[in-house]
Design brief:
Elements lengths: L7 E8 L2 E8 L8 H14 L12 H9 L13 H7 L7 H5 L8 H10 L4 H4 L2 H24 L5 H20 L27 H6 L1 H6 L2 H5 L12 H13 L2 H9 L9 H28 L12
Antiparallel strand pairs: 1-2
Helix pairs in contact: 1-2, 1-8, 1-14, 2-8, 7-8, 7-12, 7-14, 8-14
């Protein structure tokens, strides 16, 4: 997927307990998982949906459409649509170090943006990934609730089925982004700040890892073997998704270790291929579970906004 705009920025983040200020040169935009990874994540998620989701969502045509939509938000980055490109670019990533420096993450996008502006920063330099993902998931849940209503009323469900398929595919892009360790960190394309381990500071690691290495070496059966059993996600979805991003962030340094060892060159190593397949499987598993949870939660009654008033 595409990363933030290419410019220099002052970034502040916590490292080894100290607040550091430094100027980072931002590299050219990159694709998260690029085409092959996003296609694989969406296809495997759709192909592994539980049998109790609506049958239309498990048809070959629905799986094909969800698969096609995996890279869709990257298609919105054409210079022919500059306003769209600028507005949605920050929705593909979040620099967790910078976001956490502002305190607990609020559930609502505008509340987070207000915190960022109050700190003298810009939201597009930190990223809006979890808010976009949660908002698309809520669109999916709302569409599934409408499907239930129309089905119970004996009305035509074809239009809302199309919406559900679209939202599922759209959601998949961001969930896939969230499984790529270099999309949740300031270390997204070359190490910045103190570098005692001598990791690369060049601007190739992002593309090499998620682009050619995935396309040439990672195949669907290897990822399928690592997909977890389906489950309903408990609790608040925003909190669960942020926890997913934080889990992804624990693998940032491992990506740099593999790159330093040359493990993303040509076929790489068994360990680097296994690692990459596991990251893709985590994205596919999370996407499947978020779609499934949207279906289950859509059966719940809508809270009364006037209750207790």
């Amino acid at each position: 997927m595409f990363r933030r705009p290419a410019s220099s920025r002052l970034i502040r983040f916590a490292l080894s307990g100290a607040a550091l200020f430094f100027l980072a040169a931002v590299a050219p935009a990159a694709h998260c998982w690029e085409h092959d990874g996003h296609i694989m994540i969406n296809k495997l998620a759709a192909s592994n949906l539980p049998a109790d989701v609506p049958a239309f969502l498990r048809t070959p045509s629905a799986i094909d459409e969800i698969t096609y939509l995996g890279p869709e938000p990257d298609r919105w980055r054409s210079p022919a649509e500059p306003e769209l490109s600028a507005a949605q670019a920050p929705e593909h990533f979040i620099d967790m170090e910078l976001a956490d420096a502002l305190g607990p993450l609020p559930h609502k996008r505008l509340d987070f943006e207000a915190k960022v502006f109050a700190a003298g920063e810009r939201p597009e330099k930190i990223g809006l990934q979890p808010w976009e993902t949660d908002e698309v998931w809520e669109r999916l849940k709302a569409a599934m609730r409408q499907y239930r209503y129309l089905l119970a009323a004996g009305q035509d469900t074809k239009p809302v089925e199309a919406a559900i398929i679209f939202y599922s595919g759209w959601l998949g892009h961001y969930v896939g982004d969230g499984s790529q360790p270099l999309h949740v960190t300031v270390q997204y394309n070359g190490w910045v700040g103190p570098n005692p381990n001598g990791y690369t500071t060049g601007h190739q690691i992002h593309h090499i890892f998620e682009g050619p290495f995935v396309a040439d070496n990672i195949h669907a059966p290897e990822v399928q073997a690592k997909i977890t059993p389906p489950k309903v996600i408990d609790g608040d979805m925003f909190d669960a998704y942020v926890a997913y991003l934080r889990h992804t962030a624990t693998y940032v340094e491992q990506v740099y270790k593999f790159e330093k060892a040359g493990a993303f060159v040509d076929p790489g190593t068994p360990e680097s291929r296994d690692f990459t397949a596991a990251r893709l499987a985590d994205g596919a598993s999370m996407l499947r579970d978020m779609i499934y949870t949207a279906w289950i939660d859509s059966a719940q009654p809508v809270p009364d906004p006037y209750a207790g008033k």
